[in-house]
Fold:
Amino acid sequence: MVLEADILKVFLYTGAALSTGIASLSAGFGEGYAAAHTARSIMRQPNASSVLTRTMLISQAVVESGAIFALVISMLLLFGGFTQGGADWAKAFSLLGAGLAIGLGCTGPNFGSGYSAARAIEGIGRNPSKSGRITANMLIGQAITESGTIFALVVSLLLLYTVPAQMPEPSLAKMIMKACAYITAGIVIGIGTFGPGTGIGYVAGKANISISKHSKDQGVITRTMFLGAAVSESTAIYALVISFLLIFVS
Amino acid sequence: MSKKMSLKTILLIFFVVELIIAFFFLGKTLHFGSQKDTGKKIWLEEKTETMNQEIDFDIQPDLYVKKYNVDEPWEFTYGSKWLYGKFVKMFGDGSAILNFRLWRMLLYLDIFIILAAAFIRAKSSKLPSKIQLIFEMIYGFIDDLVIETLGENRKHFTQFFFTIFLFIWLSNWTALLPIPGISEPTRNLNVPLGLGFMSIALVHFMSLKKKGIVDYVKGFCEPIFIMAPLNIVGEVSKVISISFRLFGNIFGGAIITLVVSSLTHYVIVPVGLNLFFTMFAGTIQAFVFTMLSLTYLSMEIVD
Structure:
């Protein structure tokens, strides 16, 4: 049941396009939100424009890392040489699933870390003297927001490289079952990280604004943010466990 | 033996082991399968000339089979079969220990850090030079961060976090050297995973030391004991997220730089890409790794 190279290319190209397309949508939204708040804060505090611009660039680079992961998966799909070995239907669906996983999976985290960045910039606009503390907290918050993206990246890489190109004992029913398992493994991590991503981003954003108001209590604010983020992250971990089960146990 | 001396001895032993592993096999022939028609043996180290090729072969080893027309892509014998056998017996036939490019890069980095430390220590004065100022600034920044997060009485953790930051930062910046065969150690998944395991292991060790064994085990059974497996998965996912973040950023940057610069025929574009992915993202990711491990530690040991 080895596919023709042209049919395999349909899956590769669709996966590559969906991955970068969906990811850029959310990353662009997040970065634009951060930039809008920079403009507002500069209007409020023209003296702090240099530190605001610097924070905007740093935060946008971190928001963009989700889109960069998606771009990498796209490039691996396009130039990774998957057409050479010959692949069956299950492998083809796993390649499509890899694109879907990272594309959908970084949507929520991108929205979330964009929100967190915007709130940090707003906080610096209110209280420029505490910009160091706010930037540090923003980076931690964005980093834990992005763990959903990281899970999606792990699932994508597993789908690309651990799924065998041809099944050992192929039969029609088994092939359909495997193809379903692989593509749903991509979808479950993609959708499962949306809620945790936006939620943790919300927590991190509120923590940033709180630090700008009460910068003395930074320790307890950061720790509470971490605790809340760890609890909201647990659903993303359930999605990760389910997609591992789908890939390896099904 | 005093504490300082024993530490130095351990470091020296590690260094010598690294030296042996990185360079013992290098002078020997590293066979890489035999060619189909002539039966001639060819080896991998001499055949990859450019960085471009190396990344190609990193992501798709099947290229070797096609390009050099060899039988078995991964069957190779080393100069000293006895030593190789010992290694395989000890560590398994994995690629982490037997990856010589990685060992060599780590060695170069170690030599650089040791030389820099010696140089700075010898040259340091009360009227600091520019290099001394930069390093003092980074040290002071991380020192402030540690004191702010962990408290004044746990100041000694600064050295650990400063070392981690410096190591990751310099590793990420190695990509700037335009020498074939030089690549970032952090691009190999083994290095970020090792660093992540180290940080999380430190967190758990300190937590165990502070809470005592009963409270430590109880911490896993929150809110009820049925949740213990999921809590353990959550701890493992910390390692995954902290190390894959670093790996994904550096590996992604390398792949994007490679593909885009070969599409534009290496004109100017690589400079801009390196500026962003290596210098900017590399520094931020090193800082994020340090901050995250610091915060995980403070979650466990600060009341």
In short: The radius of gyration of chain B is 22 Å. The longest helix of chain B spans residues 228-263. Residues 26-31, 45-52, 73-79 of chain B have pLDDT under 50 and may be disordered.
